[in-house]
Write a structure and sequence with these properties.
Length: about 130
């Protein structure tokens, strides 16, 4: 069973940057697709960014495109989310999800991911 642990969240001001990390343990991750999602109270968990098993392809939600960057380090079993130019609407709990790879595809629906971390809170103040 894979365990995921997110870290790096915090309270920042609008315009600042944060780098989230997600570490996996329990099995090798080089055949898995990773993604970051976020959730705010009363709302559905939404897709933020995803990356294929080898890092060759990434995809982003329109709301974060050109501000966020996802990358991964398979040797360390980690995925990262670099968040720049943060906005108040980026506030939420950020979760990393992982699933077995589907060649050439990055699912954006939560039900496509089998493994989740506990989340890390990101709060952006104005």
């Amino acid at each position: 069973q894979v365990q995921l642990v997110e870290s790096g969240g915090g309270l920042v001001q609008a315009g600042d940057s944060l780098r989230l990390s997600c570490a996996a343990s329990g099995r090798p991750v080089n055949t898995f697709t990773w993604a970051w999602f976020r959730q705010t109270p009363g709302k559905e968990r939404e897709f933020v960014a995803g990356i294929t098993w080898n890092g060759g392809r990434t995809t982003y939600a329109d709301a974060v495109k050109d501000r966020f960057t996802i990358d991964r380090d398979n040797a360390k079993s980690m995925v990262f989310l670099q968040m720049n130019s943060l906005k108040t609407e980026d506030t939420g709990v950020y979760y990393c999800g992982m699933r077995l790879k589907i060649e050439g595809k990055i699912p954006i629906n939560t039900n496509e991911y089998k493994n989740w971390g506990q989340g890390t809170q990101v709060t952006v103040s104005s």
